[in-house]
Specification:
Chain A: It comes from Otolemur garnettii. Chain A: Belongs to the Mediator complex subunit 8 family. Chain A: Residues 220-232 have a biased composition (Polar residues). Chain A is mainly alpha-helical and 265 residues long. Chain A contains 10 helices and no strands. The longest helix of chain A is centred in the middle third of the chain and has 37 residues, at 133-169. Chain A is extended and about 95 Å long. Chain B has 3 helices and 9 strands; from the N terminus they run E-H-E-E-E-E-H-E-E-E-E-H. Chain B has helices at 32-42, 114-121, 182-193; strands at residues 18-28, 49-60, 68-75, 83-88, 101-110, 124-138, 141-153, 156-162, 166-176. The radius of gyration of chain B is 18 Å and the shape is globular. In chain B, a hairpin with a 2-residue loop joins strand 7 and strand 8. With 208 residues, chain B is mostly beta strands. Chain B has a single domain, classed as Hypothetical Protein Pfu-838710-001, CATH 2.40.320.10. The longest helix of chain B is centred in the C-terminal third of the chain and has 12 residues, at 182-193. Classes of the chains: A mainly alpha (265), B mainly beta (208).
Amino acid sequence: WQREEKQLEASLDALLSQVADLKNSLGSFIYKLENEYDRLTWPSVLDSFALLSGQLNTLNKVLKHEKTPLFRNQVIIPLVLSPDRDEDLMRQTEGRVPVFSHEVVPDHLRTKPDPEVEEQEKQLTTDAARIGADAAQKQIQSLNKMCSNLLEKISKEERESESGGLRPNKQTFNPADTNALVAAVAFGKGLSNWRPSGSSGPGQPGAGTILAGASGLQQVQMAGAPSQQQPMLSGVQMAQAGQPGKMPSGIKTNIKSASMHPYQR
Amino acid sequence: MEAPPVTMMPVTGGTINMMEYLLQGSVLDHSLESLIHRLRGLCDNMEPETFLDHEMVFLLKGQQASPFVLRARRSMDRAGAPWHLRYLGQPEMGDKNRHALVRNCVDIATSENLTDFLMEMGFRMDHEFVAKGHLFRKGIMKIMVYKIFRILVPGNTDSTEALSLSYLVELSVVAPAGQDVVSDDMRNFAEQLKPLVHLEKIDPKRLM
């Protein structure tokens, strides 16, 4: 008798720890779903599922173990019902059940399904009993056939999408092209094949060999050395600013070159 | 007679301190259809828009280390559309927390004598190209998928030659400075285009 009680206690403990594990992983999975849904990856969801399924399996094993006494033979009787708040109960249920009253006890100590569910189950059992063995066999066979057909279709689809999945593995983009295109829009790399090779783009200061007649800027630069702080001033404007000297030649070149610009031809 | 002061730094301060956030990638010609298809699904429900533009890039070389660059763009397939003058600042890569390249930008619509005006100011044309492709929008994001054509005879946009066998894909947002959050949206959008196209922040300086 005492041994039996000990066994019951041990298996209850085992059960409790299994359920606690399950609860923890459920909790963390729910947390993940609620807080990390935006960066959650499918493999990690599958991992969580695998964990849960494994723990459920262990729980089942514990329940079915031969040393586990049949819990259904145990009777639980509520000794005291009280409408008052029970802090102990509150703590043990992690704040889920504040009172142990006549309202909640039927829910928590229920061992049978809801009356409606019980009714439905009964209905199903009588339905099943009414069909003859032959008819049942036939239904089973047709269901099996449908299932295998479906399975075949799904696996075929899978194979096809896998072979289709190989196609995207074929390159859809080329990083070298990306670089070439970005360089082209950024500073015209590879665009001006009519310019002498070796001419500079922006950002390569001082290396500019400029197509003859493309611009008179270099002359302006030299002539307009005092205008260091105002590089945007055109030659004409600099002349207006009253800087004598070599200026006029700069202006001349500028005007001439502007009218000769290749684009305007 | 004194010359009127010329505003040297048209982009700092004032009301026009806008930044362009940019991600770039490319797609090979044969995968263009798939990309267009996906973009039509992802983007705002609008009529598919195409464009054919001619862009000319002008330089003004001062004594500073780098020349001043302006881009003039005109539509070749929409007669009467205004020209587009654009200034782009130096791109900043930023750190890992910002998912897009950022550069200062100023966009202005202009009349068609823009090139003459720039020439008069002393700019010279550095290079030009033709861009032809598709435009999509999603909220404030703009997605451009276009092919770049080299212009064989300067100024003649009739004889062109494709630069590569790929289309350039650009995802951009123009927003006031400091709105780095938009780059998060851009990153999310770029994720959805994988593995078809990998949009990244590409530092053009690396490619010089």
